[in-house]
Amino acid sequence: MSSPRLKIGLYASLVLAVFVLASYKLYRRNDARAPQKDEVLIKAMLQGLTVAHYQPEKIDDTFSKRVYDLYLKRLDVNKKFLLQTDVAQLAKYQNDIDDEVKRGSHEFLDLSTQMVTQRTKDIQALYRDILSKPFDFTTEESFETEPDKMTFAADKAAQREDWRKFLKYQTMIRVSEMMDEQAKKKDKPLAATSVTPSAATTSEPIRTPAEMEVEARKRVLKYFDDQFNDLLQNDADDRLAVYANTIANTYDPHTEYFAPKDKDAFDLAMTGRFEGIGATLQEKDGQIKVNDIVPGSASYRQGELKAGDIILRVAQAAEEPVSVEGWRLDKAITLIRGKKGTEVRLTVRKADGSTKVIPIVRDVVVIEETYAQSATINEGGKKIGYIKLPGFYADFNENGGRSSAEDVKKELAKLQQENVQGVVLDLRFNGGGSLQDAVEMAGLFIDNGPVVQVKGSQGAASVLTDKDPRVQYSGPLVLLVNKYSASASEILAAAVQDYKRGVVMGTTTYGKGTVQRIFDLDDALPSEFNNLKPFGSLKLTTQKFYRINGGSTQFKGVVPDIMVPDAYAFLDQGEKESDYPLKWDEISPARYKTWNDAPQIAKLNDSSKKRVATNPSFRLMSEMVQRMVKRKNDTMVSLKLAAYRAEQQKAKVESDKYEEVQKAAQALAIAPLAVDLKAKGSDSVQVNRASRFVKPLKKDIILHEAVSVIKDEI
User: Where is the sequence biased in composition, kind Low complexity (predicted)?
Assistant: First the structure.
């Protein structure tokens, strides 16, 4: 029988062949008019989506409205350029976009482009005028920071007032940051120097708030001048790429169009993610957002940068920060990347609305730290095994590279040699990867049987099965998951849950239950369009995952057997919070037999709830999360400097309080495996890496609770 990986590869090849034939047929035209690149691109993309997407849309008025709504949102995300009269003009096209793409025209794109170009020129003169005068930060007024709560200005007078508040807000933030920096320098003792204290003092004079305000306005002016110069340099290809990607995104969040240069950046991000700060980033609604942190990276070790953070400004060591708000991702990355050993300072907005400057010394990630690692935990006379799995990695070229399933198998063998009485498999922040490894990994804990079902838009589902009757580990098992556990992580967690093989614990997972393939449009289009190439690539959703119980992992994710709160519980993260996600559905279940020695979930859950309710660290975390939710929902910000700084200080005090309680929490007795330390011998670098792996886990209250659940089951 063919392997699942081979089957999926053959499916992709078949789709491409159909794509080529359909595209060739589409462009055998009878008229003499030479097709333009934008017409060919949009039609080819839509043909590919119609042929290959899991859930193709009808090109009708509903499709038109989806494209209109999403493009308008991205065209002016902060509602700062277009007037209500402009939007009313554009709204005339909301049911006509389907007709435009069919006839190969783009009136909506042309008009919206003309409008934004003109408004950009108007606003450039406007912000320069506003920033030529000082702001008064003692007056009582506020600014709305949430785009969804904003409205387009009724006229130019209202637009000017919106921009005045917006620019005042931007200036106030920078003044506040300058005050913080000055306070830090003032508190620092003078370094040993040949210069007299009086001379050293005069080299950095204390600046008044008024002087800071002048400097802050200069910085804001420079930022907007740079941003607007970029906006005005966008060419037809840039606008077409944004429009094409918007159309693709209306099918589902993971279907995307890559312009040729964006595909190069995508490839670089995939191959170069282990360099620099070690964070994967995404551009969403005009913001640079941290998608995840690479285990073992500089960001991971520094500890303050978190998934969900919004990067506002980037500074090289002690240099002046550069605002990246509104930048394209590829441009922002050029500032964030850098040589090993150099420092970058990121000003980020946290999920609760507070801002923080995070210094990170760039480094090259040690690849070994991104692989599965294990440790032992001694708790109450019991020895528990712990395995951290950062991702479902595999060598898809089959060149003898590492396999996550094989590595976990080896770690389980080592833990059994240590005579552990239970195992915690940590899938938190694991975004997925190799489907085949997820199937093989499930097989380490169960007898042979189905693990996951994969279904395209047509035909019956394929059942991917563990055919090995051997069980590598049969003892008590807890899988830790959170909102950032996705794709292959959800497949493994769902299989363990459906078989009742172990306890899934944490918070509901991300909900990504789809498979994507990338098709090169140049390969799909016939040679008669060679003079218009390159066209870029299309990444589209071709299949969907289903649990063996028949339910999809899409949209809903996997709901844990035991819910344990974490600091990310309040974030609007997950598939269901994205634009136009595919919905949950179900198919016929596969035939499988549950584990004979199933854990007593109800009893374990009841005991866990009681512990969590009386644990000071969990109680403080819950209080902190509630405050974060309140601050997150309260999107009106005072433009009175004293009130703004008081709110920022309050957020910092609450954050510091939580960190202090975490530090005071009882430490887990977790240590690297003796066999691993012996293998590292006298290599101090390797030994330090092993210690670095377990250090953040000592005060991990969720891991501590997982260990308690294992102890209850033993």
Answer: 191-203
